[in-house]
User: Fold these one by one.
Assistant:
Number 1:
Amino acid sequence: MIKHNINRTKKAGRLRGQGREFGRRANLRIKEKLKKPIPRSIVPSFFTLMNLLCGFLAITQIYQGMLIYGAWLIVLAAFFDALDGFMARLTNGTSVFGTELDSLSDVVSFGAAPGFLIYVWAFSDSPGIGLALLAALPLLCGAIRLARYNMEAVIESHDYFRGLPIPAQAMMIVGFFLTFNDRIELFDFFKQGLNVVLIPVIIVLSLLMVSTIKFDKIPRFKKEYLRQNRGKIVMFATYAVLILVLQEYGLMIVFSAFILKGLIVSGITFWKDVMSDEDLDISSTNS
């Protein structure tokens, strides 16, 4: 009996010792994990999620009939989208996960939300699904644009966008809505009213997204880049001031200028390429 009690006491002591050792190892593992630095990609990803949240809230506000609130939430989503890119470059926190999350968020905030805004504002009273399909163009072309961008980003990085960025397209649509929402009577001159202007705008913006026309990227905040691209820095700073001061009018002015600049520069480049090809053909013929 005494021997049995002694064995039981030894066994209990061993179990207590094993428990203490397990607790000590668990504490060490927790401390080691806490000591590990927070991944840099978390910071830009937070702003990306804020972009997505704003896009979702914009859709809910538009559904409830509060179109102006929905439109400004899309603008706020664009602000967070710019911040996540800035923070990714600042913290060197770019990652495949961040790129994919950003694209998924952009499809909602700058594809689905603006398309739904257009539909509710201008097309919801029209019979059939024809105009509903037209309102879906920003979403469809934007998804293609983002998929192409992600594919090309893996291969090579450029200082320009190929095709109109989906946030720029969304800001044009939102700017158009905010500018003319209370001035629809201006389009009464046309037989079909607002749709005579709005439909071509949607088609052109959607086609520009899937085009190969080059558009400016937001400048990088590095010393060497800033020294070499002072004009670009001034231009984007002017864009920001115009939007802050003129609000919806600033959106229209800034993104119209942004798109026109891309079209003009691409047109000049295309013309030069054509002329240089003709010169080569002439020289080869003469020789």
Note: The chain has a mean pLDDT of 83.
Number 2:
Amino acid sequence: MDTHKEKFKIRLGLFVLIGLLLFVLAVFIIGKQKNLFDPVFKVTATFYNVSGLQVGNTVRFSGINVGTVDNIAIINDSTVRVDMLIRQNVQKFIKSDSEVGIGSEGIIGDRILVLSQGSSDSPTIEDGEEIASTEPVETDAIIQSLEVTAVNAELISSELADILENINSGKGTLGRLIHDDRIADNLSKTMDNLKTSSQGLEENMEAAKSNILLRGYFKKKEREERKKQEAAEREKAKLEKANKKAAENAADEKAKQEKAKKKAAEDAAKKKAKESNN
């Protein structure tokens, strides 16, 4: 009987010990997540609509969890104040011109606060300072916009289906062009006529050049074209000559400078040798 009681006490003690360990572990994990054991500083922001944000939600900076939402209070009918507790070891990275916005963990996850990076030349944020905020985009507004887009896409698809049906049945200009062989033959004949007409026009131009009355006109045009070409070639030659002369002058100037440097070095060497002899 005594042995049975002792075993029961041992089991009870182990059960209590394991329960206490699990309780301490849970307190430690929750406290670590809520920054209960880390030194923190307070930052506030105001929103028109917090869009489901709750006390205890995460605060992120550069994709890292750096704090939690400490308090949410309604100031007036158009302003909600949100207090954040952020770890002090990241305070030096958050600037006074940083902004905070409301995001979400995934598409349907919990709401979180996201701190943006400020400019590098701005001062570091202070404890209790209020920073600017950006209003969140409501999920209902996004869904409504997607519904309008879906309706428009359905309408466009229906109209395209009607157009393709008319084309396949030979209705309309494009449908007749695809299904009526006569229209295709007419187009082919029209292209052949255009080709023949262009060849005839070339022949007429060659004949006009041989005509005594128009020969002078075409010769004048040829002389003008030749003069333009010759003028362009002269201008090109003149430019090449100027560039060549400029290059030669630059080379002569460089040679003169090198000669002057060499002479100055020789004079300096002679002067140094004379001073050494004296």
Note: Residues 212-277 form the longest helix (66 residues).
Number 3:
Amino acid sequence: MDQADLAKKTLIGTSGWHRLEGFYPPRTRQPDMLPFYAEHFPVVEVATTFQGIPGEDRVREWADVVPDGFVFDVLAFGGLTLHQRRPGQAAPLPGMPWSEVAVEPPDVIFEEFAAAIAPLTEAGKLGLLMLQFPPWFDWGPDSFRYLERCRAQLPGLPLGVEFRNPSWFLPEPCLEETLDHLIDLEIALTASDFPPAREAPLLQSQVSLSEIAPVRLHGRKEGEWDRIADTAATVAEYPYSESDLATLAELTLELSGEADRVHVIFNVLPSEAAVASARAFGELLLTEPEDGYTAYQ
């Protein structure tokens, strides 16, 4: 398969569509923003769902105003991904098990969230349900059991997972067991580009689900990891440079060779930078440089 064919398997978009400064024509009404966005990008990440379960009617409106072929990657409610801490629990101490930090949600919360996004599933417009876990969700038997619970509570939905603790990837035997479990559970491992920090996982290139390989790009600015690590409500500031995008192109094309499709989401501020980077990245994937791409780091 040549590069053009691989690039066609890649859907590129931004996280959110409401606050894209300079993207919409002047005086564009809010109800018209999503249809306009869908004319320019084939995928969007819905991040507002991290902070609350949306109404089913609202989700149905999203599905109704975009064309067939457009898909939504939906960020799971933070209560489902163990972001809700126990009362009085501040930042967890090193080595503290997540069961002493977070509150496990009851089954009904899973049921309510699945019902809320059902209109996207019914319309064939749910690209992925992303489980973004906090840094205190580390590798181990209890975490594997919780992933099994997520799969059991969300049957039939395409699931992706973003880990923010490096123990899932290092040492090598942990990565192998991580992949084995994700393959068995049919959950896609996300390739995440994080701001550099000792506690931040490195960018991964493994595919655990042949149907889809998600890529989430959170910027590379020094010092931003501490601001964004614990939540999806805070976004790092970082304009991806041409050099950055070139290193990511090699990764994306590699993933395209292993998965049926790749979803690349730019989750950075300012919004103009996210839009510009998404557009530039799409053009870059279709242009093969004479000297090849710079290897991703």
Note: The chain has one domain: 3-285.
Number 4:
Amino acid sequence: MTSIAPEPHIRRDHRVPGAFGAVGASGARIERPRIVALGDSVTVGVGDQVLPGGNPGWAAHLATALDASHFANLATLGARARDVRDRQLAVAVTLRPSLATLVIGGNDVLRGDFDATSVGRDVGVVCDALVRIGSQVVIVLLHDPRESLPGPRVIRDVLSRRARSVNSAIIDDVGRMAGVTVVDPRGRLAADDRTLWHIDRMHPGPLGHRALARMVIGELDAVRFPLRQNIPIVPAARPGATRQAAWLIRNGLPWFAKRSRDLLPELARVCWRERHLVDSH
């Protein structure tokens, strides 16, 4: 989803220390996974908090829990599906991950030129290229923004329909692709539970990032990707209400002004068309 402002710098290419591998029940050595994360600000780690020296974001917590030998976070703020296809994919392929993660589509939903079919097609290209080099791909679908975002119901309804159409397009394109695991957070990552969400209500908060990591771990093959470590805890010192409000004013208002030139006119047109159709019936 669209980032309102960059969070603290994270290490993009991180080699995780520790033993080289583990021994499975059959006696065979299980190699530690090489993990590459692709996507937008959710995977960058916006909304998360970690201890000094840690990497923010649900994918980083996943890498820690799986004791990855190598973790690279290629996600970028504001990325759309076509950005992952055109900019992140080539780098990911050169890294030859055993596990690749993807969260994308939220920024597409928030744009005036929204096209769910194109999002699904781009995701299909990305997944196909990664599967061809032997990667297991995990793609997390979009949550329902109607349940998490504040604001007028008519706007939340439009965004909700767009998110559902993106999810449907992704499932149509990659849902049956061998080597791809689709994780649906709807109904599992409670959109109405504010403790799981960042103050902007668009990104997971610290607890939400960790819940998402646990959700993905639960969908992976436990033999190939066994859980080896605990997910990092949330730091005890968390920003208070005043600091969070200051963050929203400093970063949220500029983002809203920027989006007002793109998303809001489109939302106004969509809402007007839908209201007109209702009235005509």
Note: The radius of gyration is 19 Å.
